[in-house]
Amino acid sequence: MYNKNQIDIISMGCSKNLIDSERLLKQLDAKGYTTVHDPEMPEGEYVVINTCGFINDAKEESINTIIDLVEMKKAGQIGKIVVMGCLTQRYLDDLVAEFPEVERWYGKFDWKSFIETLPDVKENCATPFAWERKLTTPPHSAYIKISEGCNRFCSFCAIPIITGRHTSRPIEEILEETESLVKEGVKEFNVIAQDLSSYGTDIYGRQALAELVERMAETKGVEWIRLHYAYPSDFPMDVLDVMARHDNVCKYLDIALQHISNPVLSNMRRHIDKEQTLNLLSEIRKRVPGIKIRTTLMTGFPGEGEMEFEELVDFVKTQKFDRMGAFAYSEEDDTFGQKNFEDTIPEDVKHKRLDRIMEIQEEIASRLNEEMIGTVQKVLIDRIEGDSAFGRTQYDSPEVDPEVIINDNTLKPGDFVNVRITGAYPFELLGETV
Length: 434
Hints:
Blueprint: E1 3-11, H1 15-30, E2 34-37, E3 44-51, H2 56-74, E4 80-85, H3 86-98, E5 104-105, H4 112-117, E6 141-145, E7 147-148, H5 159-163, E8 167-168, H6 171-183, E9 188-192, H7 209-217, E10 224-230, H8 238-245, E11 249-255, H9 262-268, H10 274-287, E12 292-299, H11 306-319, E13 323-328, H12 336-340, H13 347-370, E14 376-385, E15 388-392, E16 403-406, E17 416-425, E18 428-433
Parallel strand pairs: 1-2, 1-3, 3-4, 4-5, 6-9, 9-10, 10-11, 11-12, 12-13, 16-18
Antiparallel strand pairs: 7-8, 14-15, 14-17, 15-16, 17-18
């Protein structure tokens, strides 16, 4: 039998989705409900799944989770099912027809209506600010979403279809949220958006990322700021000066480049060519010495023949990215690519190419990590497991980048410690406190 007045939230997909789940948790807590995030075994009166609809694998995972919840509902283990997020934003009519067992459906932005349908469990409930949330990350670390949506319309990407046009949050609101999180003990701020480069253009008529990061860096208690998901075209170069000037702005940049061959970049509608990309990378490294760059690449997009792929291979070898992810192209409904290009590259070829560049990247990452042996790094401790502490350097974002493993369980999560790197593997480092 399910637990009355308990609401379980299952959050899928990216950190931007996670923030929406955290805001929902905060609002539900304020009403007096018992909330559980990502339960191993849901048992609430309501189970809310915040879906992802970005790529096929993520969509399939979200649908399979709904199927599992329907079975749990039939068995009486949970009460009502609520589905929200990116998948429902795109495919609401199809999902409603497929899953009549789901009580309520919400898209990417109207989930607040769910809160309004619920009665208060406790008296004199205070309504949180719209940006307030219940952190599900370690208490010393948080994501900050500074904008929603995207105006780029790359031919392979469904994000603008799901999230709509680019919409920035005001600087003052973001700073208010930052200061509030500092008071809660947050030290590390991972700034995220679909397109950091366009921040501010819609509300200020200019790029304002540098101003925002500068003011965040000047906020007392902000120890680390890390930037995720910049767009290479029209990149705001002035943010590099802020990064170089402030020690608490991590020398790290996540910028998805997708490809380097001009025919493929043109088909992708990336608004940038090979020469411009190489010049941008050179300038980033020149302005911020020692910066670590994370990028994302794609294999198998229409127009990628053997010559174009070998160009991509050479790009990976010569640029030696510190961090890199990649995925094989799959058609997304209603995108420019799906409508205008025939997906003729066999799936096995796409994945062989993917495996090849990731093998190359693993060798590069291993060599770069080995170069860190003997250096002393400032490390933020995330957790303790057994006799070891696990932390990250300024060059490592949560969940996707290497961890530093320290044989010392006396450290505490949220501590900053100086660590001498003593060993290196492709995706983790070993160290000892200094």
